[in-house]
Design brief:
By secondary structure, this protein is an alpha/beta fold. 23% of the residues lie in helices and 31% in strands. It has three domains: 6-112 and 241-309, 3-Layer(bba) Sandwich (FAD/NAD(P)-binding domain), CATH 3.50.50; 126-237, FAD/NAD(P)-binding domain (3-Layer(bba) Sandwich), CATH 3.50.50.60; 337-405, Enolase-like, domain 1 (2-Layer Sandwich), CATH 3.30.390.30. The N and C termini lie far apart (45 Å). Bound molecules: flavin-adenine dinucleotide (FAD).
Protein backbone atom coordinates (compact mmCIF):
# COMPACT_ATOMS: atom_id res chain seq x y z
CA UNK A 1 0.00 0.00 0.00
CA UNK A 2 1.39 3.44 -0.87
CA UNK A 3 2.74 5.34 2.15
CA UNK A 4 1.00 8.51 1.05
CA UNK A 5 -2.48 7.15 1.74
CA UNK A 6 -4.71 8.76 4.36
CA UNK A 7 -7.13 6.76 6.49
CA UNK A 8 -9.73 8.75 8.39
CA UNK A 9 -11.67 7.37 11.35
CA UNK A 10 -14.80 9.26 12.44
CA UNK A 11 -15.80 8.48 16.03
CA UNK A 12 -13.11 8.30 18.71
CA UNK A 13 -14.87 5.81 20.99
CA UNK A 14 -13.89 2.25 21.82
CA UNK A 15 -14.15 1.01 18.23
CA UNK A 16 -12.32 4.04 16.79
CA UNK A 17 -9.48 3.65 19.29
CA UNK A 18 -8.99 -0.04 18.60
CA UNK A 19 -9.19 0.57 14.86
CA UNK A 20 -6.35 3.08 14.70
CA UNK A 21 -4.21 0.80 16.85
CA UNK A 22 -4.99 -2.15 14.55
CA UNK A 23 -4.07 -0.11 11.47
CA UNK A 24 -0.60 0.54 12.84
CA UNK A 25 -0.31 -3.10 13.98
CA UNK A 26 -1.14 -4.14 10.43
CA UNK A 27 1.81 -2.10 9.21
CA UNK A 28 -0.04 0.86 7.74
CA UNK A 29 2.48 3.69 7.59
CA UNK A 30 0.34 6.35 5.93
CA UNK A 31 -1.54 9.15 7.62
CA UNK A 32 -4.22 8.32 10.19
CA UNK A 33 -6.66 10.99 11.31
CA UNK A 34 -9.01 10.23 14.20
CA UNK A 35 -11.96 12.58 14.57
CA UNK A 36 -14.07 12.60 17.73
CA UNK A 37 -16.61 15.03 19.09
CA UNK A 38 -15.88 14.19 22.74
CA UNK A 39 -12.93 16.04 24.29
CA UNK A 40 -11.32 12.74 25.35
CA UNK A 41 -9.07 10.18 23.71
CA UNK A 42 -10.81 6.83 23.11
CA UNK A 43 -11.93 5.00 26.23
CA UNK A 44 -14.03 1.99 27.17
CA UNK A 45 -17.53 2.69 28.44
CA UNK A 46 -18.36 -0.24 30.81
CA UNK A 47 -16.88 1.45 33.94
CA UNK A 48 -19.03 4.58 33.38
CA UNK A 49 -22.10 3.03 35.00
CA UNK A 50 -20.19 0.78 37.40
CA UNK A 51 -16.90 1.68 39.13
CA UNK A 52 -16.90 5.35 38.12
CA UNK A 53 -20.27 5.82 39.85
CA UNK A 54 -19.07 3.87 42.87
CA UNK A 55 -16.43 6.46 43.67
CA UNK A 56 -13.54 4.71 41.89
CA UNK A 57 -12.29 7.19 39.28
CA UNK A 58 -9.11 5.14 38.82
CA UNK A 59 -11.24 2.58 36.97
CA UNK A 60 -11.43 4.88 33.94
CA UNK A 61 -10.13 2.77 31.04
CA UNK A 62 -8.56 4.58 28.08
CA UNK A 63 -8.12 2.28 25.08
CA UNK A 64 -4.45 3.39 24.93
CA UNK A 65 -2.53 5.92 26.98
CA UNK A 66 -1.97 9.45 25.67
CA UNK A 67 1.61 8.73 24.56
CA UNK A 68 0.46 5.99 22.18
CA UNK A 69 -1.16 8.44 19.76
CA UNK A 70 1.90 10.66 19.49
CA UNK A 71 4.31 7.72 19.27
CA UNK A 72 2.23 6.20 16.48
CA UNK A 73 1.71 9.43 14.63
CA UNK A 74 -2.06 9.42 14.91
CA UNK A 75 -3.52 12.82 14.27
CA UNK A 76 -6.33 13.16 16.84
CA UNK A 77 -8.88 15.86 16.21
CA UNK A 78 -10.85 15.87 19.44
CA UNK A 79 -13.85 18.05 20.25
CA UNK A 80 -14.59 18.12 16.52
CA UNK A 81 -17.70 16.73 14.89
CA UNK A 82 -17.84 15.45 11.33
CA UNK A 83 -20.86 17.10 9.75
CA UNK A 84 -20.81 15.81 6.18
CA UNK A 85 -19.38 13.00 4.11
CA UNK A 86 -18.94 13.06 0.35
CA UNK A 87 -18.29 9.50 -0.84
CA UNK A 88 -17.64 10.55 -4.45
CA UNK A 89 -15.05 13.23 -3.64
CA UNK A 90 -13.83 11.19 -0.66
CA UNK A 91 -13.96 14.03 1.83
CA UNK A 92 -15.28 14.55 5.32
CA UNK A 93 -16.34 18.01 6.50
CA UNK A 94 -15.82 19.04 10.11
CA UNK A 95 -17.84 21.45 12.22
CA UNK A 96 -15.12 24.11 11.84
CA UNK A 97 -15.76 24.07 8.08
CA UNK A 98 -12.55 22.25 7.19
CA UNK A 99 -12.54 19.39 4.69
CA UNK A 100 -10.40 16.28 5.08
CA UNK A 101 -9.63 14.09 2.11
CA UNK A 102 -9.34 10.35 2.64
CA UNK A 103 -8.33 7.30 0.69
CA UNK A 104 -10.26 5.08 3.07
CA UNK A 105 -12.75 5.98 5.79
CA UNK A 106 -13.97 4.11 8.84
CA UNK A 107 -17.19 5.21 10.56
CA UNK A 108 -17.24 4.30 14.26
CA UNK A 109 -19.86 6.80 15.34
CA UNK A 110 -21.57 4.46 17.82
CA UNK A 111 -24.92 5.37 19.26
CA UNK A 112 -26.67 8.35 20.78
CA UNK A 113 -28.98 8.03 23.76
CA UNK A 114 -32.67 7.79 23.02
CA UNK A 115 -34.29 10.86 24.52
CA UNK A 116 -37.59 10.70 26.40
CA UNK A 117 -40.11 13.14 25.00
CA UNK A 118 -41.97 13.77 28.26
CA UNK A 119 -42.75 17.17 29.82
CA UNK A 120 -40.00 18.39 32.12
CA UNK A 121 -37.31 16.11 30.68
CA UNK A 122 -35.06 19.13 30.11
CA UNK A 123 -34.95 20.17 33.78
CA UNK A 124 -31.55 20.30 35.46
CA UNK A 125 -30.38 17.15 37.25
CA UNK A 126 -31.97 14.86 34.68
CA UNK A 127 -29.20 12.87 33.04
CA UNK A 128 -28.58 10.36 30.32
CA UNK A 129 -25.48 8.16 30.38
CA UNK A 130 -23.26 7.56 27.40
CA UNK A 131 -20.06 9.51 27.88
CA UNK A 132 -17.38 10.05 30.49
CA UNK A 133 -18.72 13.56 31.02
CA UNK A 134 -22.25 12.18 31.57
CA UNK A 135 -20.85 9.74 34.13
CA UNK A 136 -18.96 12.49 35.95
CA UNK A 137 -22.08 14.68 36.06
CA UNK A 138 -24.11 11.83 37.57
CA UNK A 139 -21.28 10.99 39.98
CA UNK A 140 -21.29 14.57 41.26
CA UNK A 141 -24.92 14.19 42.33
CA UNK A 142 -24.56 10.88 44.16
CA UNK A 143 -24.26 11.12 47.93
CA UNK A 144 -25.59 9.39 51.00
CA UNK A 145 -29.32 10.03 51.39
CA UNK A 146 -29.89 11.56 47.95
CA UNK A 147 -33.02 10.37 46.15
CA UNK A 148 -32.51 9.09 42.62
CA UNK A 149 -35.14 7.98 40.13
CA UNK A 150 -33.85 5.76 37.33
CA UNK A 151 -36.07 5.49 34.27
CA UNK A 152 -35.53 2.18 32.47
CA UNK A 153 -34.79 -1.23 33.96
CA UNK A 154 -32.32 -2.32 31.28
CA UNK A 155 -28.59 -2.98 31.76
CA UNK A 156 -27.50 0.65 32.07
CA UNK A 157 -30.41 1.75 34.27
CA UNK A 158 -29.87 -1.16 36.65
CA UNK A 159 -26.12 -0.65 36.81
CA UNK A 160 -26.68 3.01 37.68
CA UNK A 161 -29.27 1.99 40.27
CA UNK A 162 -26.86 -0.48 41.90
CA UNK A 163 -23.97 2.01 41.92
CA UNK A 164 -26.14 4.80 43.35
CA UNK A 165 -27.46 2.47 46.04
CA UNK A 166 -23.88 1.49 46.91
CA UNK A 167 -23.24 5.20 47.44
CA UNK A 168 -26.09 5.33 49.97
CA UNK A 169 -28.73 6.87 47.71
CA UNK A 170 -32.43 6.00 47.93
CA UNK A 171 -33.11 4.60 44.48
CA UNK A 172 -36.34 3.95 42.61
CA UNK A 173 -36.34 2.24 39.19
CA UNK A 174 -39.29 2.72 36.84
CA UNK A 175 -39.65 0.01 34.20
CA UNK A 176 -42.51 -0.02 31.70
CA UNK A 177 -42.37 -3.76 31.08
CA UNK A 178 -43.40 -6.47 33.48
CA UNK A 179 -39.81 -7.60 34.05
CA UNK A 180 -36.26 -6.25 34.11
CA UNK A 181 -33.94 -6.38 31.08
CA UNK A 182 -36.89 -7.99 29.32
CA UNK A 183 -35.57 -7.62 25.78
CA UNK A 184 -32.31 -9.37 26.55
CA UNK A 185 -32.59 -12.06 29.20
CA UNK A 186 -34.61 -15.09 30.30
CA UNK A 187 -37.39 -14.44 32.81
CA UNK A 188 -35.47 -16.40 35.51
CA UNK A 189 -32.63 -13.89 35.15
CA UNK A 190 -35.01 -10.93 35.28
CA UNK A 191 -36.43 -12.34 38.49
CA UNK A 192 -32.99 -13.02 40.01
CA UNK A 193 -32.01 -9.39 39.42
CA UNK A 194 -35.34 -8.05 40.69
CA UNK A 195 -34.72 -9.94 43.93
CA UNK A 196 -31.10 -8.79 44.09
CA UNK A 197 -32.07 -5.14 43.77
CA UNK A 198 -34.93 -5.51 46.25
CA UNK A 199 -32.58 -7.17 48.77
CA UNK A 200 -30.27 -4.18 48.47
CA UNK A 201 -33.16 -1.78 49.06
CA UNK A 202 -33.78 -0.56 45.50
CA UNK A 203 -37.46 0.20 44.94
CA UNK A 204 -38.23 -1.53 41.64
CA UNK A 205 -41.53 -0.50 40.02
CA UNK A 206 -42.47 -2.76 37.12
CA UNK A 207 -45.26 -1.89 34.65
CA UNK A 208 -44.55 1.74 35.48
CA UNK A 209 -43.44 4.51 33.17
CA UNK A 210 -42.60 8.13 33.75
CA UNK A 211 -45.23 10.56 32.48
CA UNK A 212 -43.42 13.81 33.31
CA UNK A 213 -40.92 15.51 35.57
CA UNK A 214 -41.74 18.46 37.83
CA UNK A 215 -39.40 21.03 39.22
CA UNK A 216 -38.47 24.66 39.26
CA UNK A 217 -35.31 24.76 37.18
CA UNK A 218 -34.10 21.51 38.70
CA UNK A 219 -36.08 18.28 38.95
CA UNK A 220 -37.97 17.75 42.22
CA UNK A 221 -40.43 14.99 41.24
CA UNK A 222 -40.83 12.22 38.72
CA UNK A 223 -44.50 11.67 37.94
CA UNK A 224 -45.40 8.10 37.06
CA UNK A 225 -48.01 6.95 34.54
CA UNK A 226 -50.28 6.28 37.53
CA UNK A 227 -49.86 9.93 38.54
CA UNK A 228 -47.75 9.16 41.58
CA UNK A 229 -45.31 11.97 42.38
CA UNK A 230 -41.95 10.58 43.45
CA UNK A 231 -39.74 13.19 45.14
CA UNK A 232 -36.25 13.08 43.68
CA UNK A 233 -32.95 14.96 43.68
CA UNK A 234 -31.82 13.52 40.37
CA UNK A 235 -33.17 11.36 37.56
CA UNK A 236 -31.18 9.16 35.20
CA UNK A 237 -32.84 8.02 32.01
CA UNK A 238 -31.61 4.80 30.41
CA UNK A 239 -34.00 3.85 27.64
CA UNK A 240 -31.59 2.71 24.96
CA UNK A 241 -29.62 4.21 22.12
CA UNK A 242 -30.15 4.89 18.46
CA UNK A 243 -27.29 4.25 16.03
CA UNK A 244 -25.53 7.47 15.04
CA UNK A 245 -26.12 7.16 11.30
CA UNK A 246 -26.78 10.75 10.18
CA UNK A 247 -23.51 11.11 8.23
CA UNK A 248 -24.07 7.81 6.44
CA UNK A 249 -27.73 8.53 5.65
CA UNK A 250 -26.94 11.98 4.21
CA UNK A 251 -24.12 10.48 2.16
CA UNK A 252 -26.50 7.92 0.62
CA UNK A 253 -24.96 4.83 2.21
CA UNK A 254 -27.30 1.91 2.83
CA UNK A 255 -28.65 2.29 6.35
CA UNK A 256 -31.22 0.03 7.97
CA UNK A 257 -31.18 -0.03 11.75
CA UNK A 258 -27.50 0.93 11.54
CA UNK A 259 -25.03 1.26 8.72
CA UNK A 260 -25.29 -1.91 6.66
CA UNK A 261 -21.91 -3.64 6.34
CA UNK A 262 -20.69 -7.06 5.33
CA UNK A 263 -18.57 -9.33 7.53
CA UNK A 264 -15.48 -7.26 6.64
CA UNK A 265 -17.06 -3.96 7.70
CA UNK A 266 -17.52 -2.76 4.12
CA UNK A 267 -20.41 -0.35 3.58
CA UNK A 268 -22.31 0.09 0.32
CA UNK A 269 -19.78 2.77 -0.75
CA UNK A 270 -16.29 1.87 -1.99
CA UNK A 271 -13.48 2.50 0.52
CA UNK A 272 -15.91 3.37 3.30
CA UNK A 273 -16.10 1.00 6.23
CA UNK A 274 -17.97 0.98 9.54
CA UNK A 275 -17.64 -0.88 12.84
CA UNK A 276 -19.09 -1.02 16.36
CA UNK A 277 -22.52 -0.12 17.73
CA UNK A 278 -23.38 1.82 14.57
CA UNK A 279 -23.33 -1.19 12.24
CA UNK A 280 -25.93 -3.63 11.14
CA UNK A 281 -23.46 -6.30 10.14
CA UNK A 282 -23.50 -9.71 8.59
CA UNK A 283 -22.42 -12.39 11.06
CA UNK A 284 -21.34 -15.44 9.04
CA UNK A 285 -22.03 -17.76 12.00
CA UNK A 286 -25.72 -16.89 11.82
CA UNK A 287 -25.95 -15.99 8.12
CA UNK A 288 -27.92 -12.91 9.04
CA UNK A 289 -27.48 -9.28 9.94
CA UNK A 290 -27.35 -8.08 13.50
CA UNK A 291 -26.76 -4.84 15.33
CA UNK A 292 -24.99 -5.27 18.64
CA UNK A 293 -24.23 -2.88 21.46
CA UNK A 294 -21.37 -4.53 23.27
CA UNK A 295 -17.73 -4.17 24.24
CA UNK A 296 -16.81 -7.33 22.31
CA UNK A 297 -18.36 -6.08 19.09
CA UNK A 298 -16.84 -2.60 19.41
CA UNK A 299 -13.39 -4.05 19.96
CA UNK A 300 -13.21 -6.99 17.58
CA UNK A 301 -15.34 -5.79 14.70
CA UNK A 302 -13.23 -2.62 14.63
CA UNK A 303 -10.01 -4.64 14.54
CA UNK A 304 -11.36 -6.83 11.71
CA UNK A 305 -12.48 -3.82 9.66
CA UNK A 306 -9.17 -2.01 10.21
CA UNK A 307 -7.18 -5.05 9.10
CA UNK A 308 -9.35 -5.37 6.03
CA UNK A 309 -8.72 -1.71 5.19
CA UNK A 310 -5.00 -2.45 5.42
CA UNK A 311 -5.22 -5.34 3.01
CA UNK A 312 -5.33 -8.20 5.54
CA UNK A 313 -8.98 -9.09 4.96
CA UNK A 314 -10.46 -10.44 8.17
CA UNK A 315 -14.10 -11.36 8.66
CA UNK A 316 -15.71 -10.54 11.97
CA UNK A 317 -17.36 -13.79 12.98
CA UNK A 318 -17.90 -14.38 16.68
CA UNK A 319 -20.58 -15.72 18.98
CA UNK A 320 -21.99 -12.50 20.49
CA UNK A 321 -21.29 -12.06 24.19
CA UNK A 322 -21.82 -9.34 26.75
CA UNK A 323 -21.90 -8.85 30.50
CA UNK A 324 -23.31 -6.63 33.19
CA UNK A 325 -22.26 -6.18 36.82
CA UNK A 326 -24.83 -5.12 39.40
CA UNK A 327 -23.98 -5.12 43.12
CA UNK A 328 -21.92 -8.29 43.54
CA UNK A 329 -23.66 -10.14 40.71
CA UNK A 330 -22.15 -10.82 37.31
CA UNK A 331 -24.53 -11.45 34.42
CA UNK A 332 -23.35 -12.81 31.07
CA UNK A 333 -25.28 -13.43 27.88
CA UNK A 334 -23.88 -15.35 24.90
CA UNK A 335 -25.24 -16.41 21.56
CA UNK A 336 -28.02 -14.97 19.50
CA UNK A 337 -30.66 -17.62 19.17
CA UNK A 338 -33.79 -16.73 17.25
CA UNK A 339 -35.47 -19.96 18.24
CA UNK A 340 -34.91 -22.44 21.04
CA UNK A 341 -37.25 -25.12 22.28
CA UNK A 342 -36.33 -25.25 25.97
CA UNK A 343 -33.93 -23.99 28.61
CA UNK A 344 -31.82 -26.33 30.72
CA UNK A 345 -30.59 -24.88 34.01
CA UNK A 346 -27.48 -25.85 35.92
CA UNK A 347 -27.36 -24.44 39.45
CA UNK A 348 -29.97 -22.77 41.61
CA UNK A 349 -32.15 -20.17 39.91
CA UNK A 350 -33.38 -19.12 43.35
CA UNK A 351 -29.89 -18.37 44.63
CA UNK A 352 -28.37 -16.11 41.94
CA UNK A 353 -25.95 -18.87 40.99
CA UNK A 354 -26.87 -20.57 37.75
CA UNK A 355 -26.45 -20.85 34.04
CA UNK A 356 -29.29 -21.45 31.60
CA UNK A 357 -28.62 -23.19 28.29
CA UNK A 358 -31.01 -22.35 25.47
CA UNK A 359 -31.42 -25.56 23.48
CA UNK A 360 -32.51 -26.27 19.94
CA UNK A 361 -32.78 -30.04 19.69
CA UNK A 362 -29.57 -31.41 21.18
CA UNK A 363 -27.49 -28.26 20.53
CA UNK A 364 -26.77 -25.31 22.80
CA UNK A 365 -27.68 -22.15 20.87
CA UNK A 366 -27.41 -19.61 23.67
CA UNK A 367 -26.48 -19.29 27.32
CA UNK A 368 -27.08 -16.83 30.14
CA UNK A 369 -25.42 -16.97 33.52
CA UNK A 370 -25.57 -15.34 36.91
CA UNK A 371 -22.32 -15.50 38.87
CA UNK A 372 -20.91 -18.33 36.74
CA UNK A 373 -18.15 -16.75 34.65
CA UNK A 374 -16.15 -19.98 34.50
CA UNK A 375 -19.08 -22.04 33.24
CA UNK A 376 -19.83 -19.30 30.76
CA UNK A 377 -16.34 -19.49 29.27
CA UNK A 378 -17.05 -23.08 28.30
CA UNK A 379 -20.67 -22.43 27.34
CA UNK A 380 -19.47 -19.88 24.78
CA UNK A 381 -17.48 -22.66 23.14
CA UNK A 382 -20.43 -25.05 23.19
CA UNK A 383 -22.63 -22.57 21.34
CA UNK A 384 -22.57 -23.27 17.68
CA UNK A 385 -20.55 -26.44 18.25
CA UNK A 386 -21.47 -29.63 16.51
CA UNK A 387 -21.46 -31.88 19.56
CA UNK A 388 -24.90 -33.21 20.55
CA UNK A 389 -25.54 -32.51 24.24
CA UNK A 390 -27.69 -34.22 26.76
CA UNK A 391 -30.04 -32.20 29.02
CA UNK A 392 -29.31 -34.36 32.06
CA UNK A 393 -25.53 -33.93 31.72
CA UNK A 394 -25.86 -30.18 31.17
CA UNK A 395 -27.94 -29.84 34.31
CA UNK A 396 -25.81 -32.17 36.45
CA UNK A 397 -23.27 -30.26 38.56
CA UNK A 398 -21.40 -33.54 39.07
CA UNK A 399 -20.51 -33.52 35.36
CA UNK A 400 -17.82 -30.92 34.84
CA UNK A 401 -18.39 -28.33 32.13
CA UNK A 402 -15.05 -29.35 30.62
CA UNK A 403 -16.29 -32.92 30.25
CA UNK A 404 -19.25 -31.63 28.27
CA UNK A 405 -16.85 -30.44 25.61
CA UNK A 406 -15.13 -33.78 25.17
C1 LIG B 1 -22.54 3.20 30.55
C2 LIG B 1 -22.24 2.04 29.62
C3 LIG B 1 -21.91 0.81 30.16
C4 LIG B 1 -21.64 -0.28 29.31
N1 LIG B 1 -21.33 -1.48 29.87
C5 LIG B 1 -21.10 -2.54 29.06
C6 LIG B 1 -20.78 -3.81 29.61
O1 LIG B 1 -20.72 -4.00 30.82
N2 LIG B 1 -20.55 -4.85 28.76
C7 LIG B 1 -20.61 -4.69 27.41
O2 LIG B 1 -20.41 -5.67 26.67
N3 LIG B 1 -20.91 -3.49 26.84
C8 LIG B 1 -21.15 -2.42 27.65
N4 LIG B 1 -21.46 -1.20 27.09
C9 LIG B 1 -21.55 -1.08 25.63
C10 LIG B 1 -20.21 -0.69 25.00
O3 LIG B 1 -19.55 0.24 25.78
C11 LIG B 1 -20.49 -0.14 23.61
O4 LIG B 1 -21.01 -1.19 22.85
C12 LIG B 1 -19.25 0.45 22.96
O5 LIG B 1 -18.83 1.59 23.67
C13 LIG B 1 -19.52 0.83 21.52
O6 LIG B 1 -18.39 1.41 21.00
P1 LIG B 1 -18.39 2.27 19.66
O7 LIG B 1 -17.02 2.77 19.51
O8 LIG B 1 -19.04 1.50 18.58
O9 LIG B 1 -19.39 3.48 19.94
P2 LIG B 1 -19.27 4.66 20.98
O10 LIG B 1 -18.66 4.14 22.22
O11 LIG B 1 -20.65 5.25 21.06
O12 LIG B 1 -18.28 5.70 20.32
C14 LIG B 1 -18.64 6.50 19.23
C15 LIG B 1 -17.94 7.83 19.35
O13 LIG B 1 -18.14 8.57 18.15
C16 LIG B 1 -18.47 9.91 18.47
N5 LIG B 1 -19.18 10.47 17.31
C17 LIG B 1 -20.44 10.16 16.87
N6 LIG B 1 -20.75 10.86 15.76
C18 LIG B 1 -19.67 11.65 15.50
C19 LIG B 1 -19.38 12.59 14.48
N7 LIG B 1 -20.25 12.88 13.49
N8 LIG B 1 -18.18 13.23 14.50
C20 LIG B 1 -17.27 12.94 15.48
N9 LIG B 1 -17.49 12.05 16.46
C21 LIG B 1 -18.68 11.41 16.47
C22 LIG B 1 -19.30 9.76 19.73
O14 LIG B 1 -19.40 10.95 20.44
C23 LIG B 1 -18.47 8.71 20.46
O15 LIG B 1 -17.42 9.28 21.15
C24 LIG B 1 -21.73 -0.10 27.92
C25 LIG B 1 -22.08 1.15 27.38
C26 LIG B 1 -22.34 2.20 28.22
C27 LIG B 1 -22.73 3.55 27.64
Amino acid sequence: MPVSETYVVVGAGHAGGRAVEAMRNAGFTGKIILIGDEPHLPYERPPLSKELLQGKPEAHTPVRDDAFYAENDIDCRLGRRATALDPARKTVTLDDGSHIAFDKLLLTTGGAVRRLPVPGADLANIHYLRTLDDSRAIDAGLADGKRIVVVGGGFIGLEVAASARQRGCAVTVLEMADRLMGRAVLSEISEAFRRLHAEHGVDIRLNTGVASFDGDGSVTHAVTGDDEKLPTDMAVIGVGIVPETALAVDAGLTVENGIVVDEFGRTSAPDIYAAGDVTNHLNPLYSRRIRLESWQNAQNQAIAAAKTMCGEAQAYSEVPWMWSDQFDANLQVAGLPEIWDRVVFRGDTGAADFIGFQMAGDRVVGAMSVNRPRDMRIARRLIGGDKPLDDAALADEAVSMRDLMR
